[in-house]
Every structure is written in C-alpha cells, then in structure tokens.
Amino acid sequence: MRHPIAAYCVALALTACAAVDTEGPVETRSSRDTGEVRITIKPSLARLVDITRVDVHVAPDDLTQTMDYNATSGGFSGLMTLAPGAKTLTGRAYVNEDSVGQGSAAVEVVAGQTAAVLLQIFDTSGAQPENDIAPIIQSVTISNVYPVTGETVTLGVAAVDLNGDPLTYAWSDDCAASAFDAPTLATTGWQSEAAGTCNITVTVYATGYAVQEVFSLAVLDPALEQGSLAVSGEFVPAPYLSSFHLDYVTGGAGSYVGCEIDLYAPTQNGFVCPALEYDMPLNGWFYSYFGVTTGTRTFALTDDCGGSATLGLQYHAPYGTTQEFTWTPPAAGLPRVCRLTATASYYGLDSAFDVGLLVDF
User: What is the pTM of this model?
Assistant: First the structure.
C-alpha cells in the first residue's frame, strides 16, 4: 500500500489553489507566451519523519525547482514560469539526501488561462515494520506435582513467538539438592533428593525478551508416609462506593441539574446535592468497586425523610457494578433535609455512601 506523505495544488496564472491553504496572495505574471504556476505543498500530519526538501520537476521542459520551506505552516511552496503546453509535474520528497516519496500529475498550461492540478506524493520509504512481539507461554506440563525424593518428574513448556523468532529455554529452582536433566530444552527431567517445597522457574527467551512461569512442587519423603496440602487464598476487601449520580430539574424555568458526587473530589460540593424544588421521582445510579470477582453483590438505597427507592438495572464489570435506581421524595410539606444512603454488600461485608439533599416544594 502506498501512503501519501503530502499533497499540493498547482495553479496557473491568476488563481490560488482552492484545495489547500496558500502561502499568500497569488502573484499574477502572465503573458501570451508563458504561464505561471504557484505550487503549495501542505505538511502531512501522519508522516513519522520530517520532510527536509521537496523538488518539483517539469517535463518536457526539463526544469527542476526546489520548493521553499515555510516554518510557520510546516509546508513548502514555490512559483514556476512555464511555456504553454502539456506538462508532467513530478514531485520528490527528501529527508536530508534520502528520497522518501514521489508522485506525478499532468497539467495543460495555456497562456492567459487558468488551470489547477492536485499532486500527491506517496511514501516510497517502505511500510512500517512489524512489531516484535514477546514470546507467549501457552502451558506448562508436570508429570507429578507430588513426587517422592529421588523420583524423576518430567517438566515441559509450550511457547510460541508470533514473529517466528527462535526460542531458547532455561530451567531453574530454589532447591539445593535438585537437578535438571536438560535445563536448556523445552522438556526436561527434574528430581530432588530432599523433601520439601521447591519453586521452579522456566524462562523463555526470544530477541531480547524473557518471559517466565513459576510453579511449586512438593517433594515427599516416602519413609515418613507424608501427604501434601496445596493451599491458596485471597483477601476479600469491603466494597468501595466511589460515585453517586442523581438527575432532576430545579430553578424557576425547570432547568436540568445533574447531581454527581465523586468520592475522590468531595470538596467540590461537600457531598450535598442541589435543592430539589419539584415533586417528581428521580432517576440515578451509584457505582461500587469490589476486590474480587466472586461472591453475590447486593445493593440498597435508603433515606431518613420518608422517601422510597426502587432499584433498577445493574451493569457488571469484573471488579465493579453500576446500580441504577429511582427515588421518590417524601410528600410535599415543610422543607426537609434528606440523607440518602447507598449500600453495597457481598460476603457479609458492607459499605455505604451518604449524600445530603434539601427537599423544598
């Protein structure tokens, strides 16, 4: 695929190019025998290198002119005086002395008349190189995760390099009385002469990258008739409510107000929503983080002023949930200050988020 580096318009005699921004008013110098060509080359926002020079060659006149660089616009421009007739314009872009782009266009120069041509200069420096992707470990195989002392365990690693680069391997462990049969191959034998837990690391290398997988083996002493227990666990933090949003109208014209309170910026409103001046149900939502992906998540919205809430849809992410709701304020009467409390729970752990609201209708 060819990539356009820059494009420029060529205008003859009295015209400026409509397709690009010119460097200034077009100069008009024409006669019955010649036409003037003003060339403007716009900079390309997509190019990865800065073009340092642009030459334009005109055939069959065999004229070549270097365009002037404009530091303000970042483009190139020039003025050429040509004899009437069919012309082929060839633009070449350079980075220092290296040619990086070329393009051609045909134009008919007619004395005393105006013509325009769009010329694209295409990248000739080659396509963007492919990314060098690190090797990816697909799996690790272990013939026995609870061997006895002196028993050989077969270990293997499957990995792939998407660029096709060659892979090398290295096996290591943290056990003093252990050995690998082939520590630099994808598959190796391993044994330990001492009982205990050994942490084994396999490293896969390719073109400067090194990726690892670490796992543990429990080596048993057959004389002690031992067993092994693999224990894993996780810390389950309490839910963390971070934001609360309420939609309603307020003011004499009934303008829209969004009450959005973020736990990370409480000073912007002191956890207080604008006063509610109209008797109407309000829609809103609150968001809670959860430290683990397991467990049943439950939510509630309550108040201390006689209103009522109905929970709506939930939108789940692995570690967070958005809970929608509709809140109906208390019946009309004297102004009241309401405390709305959003609650999130799982695994018996609860967290709450409180906001204040003046009901005045």
Answer: 0.46
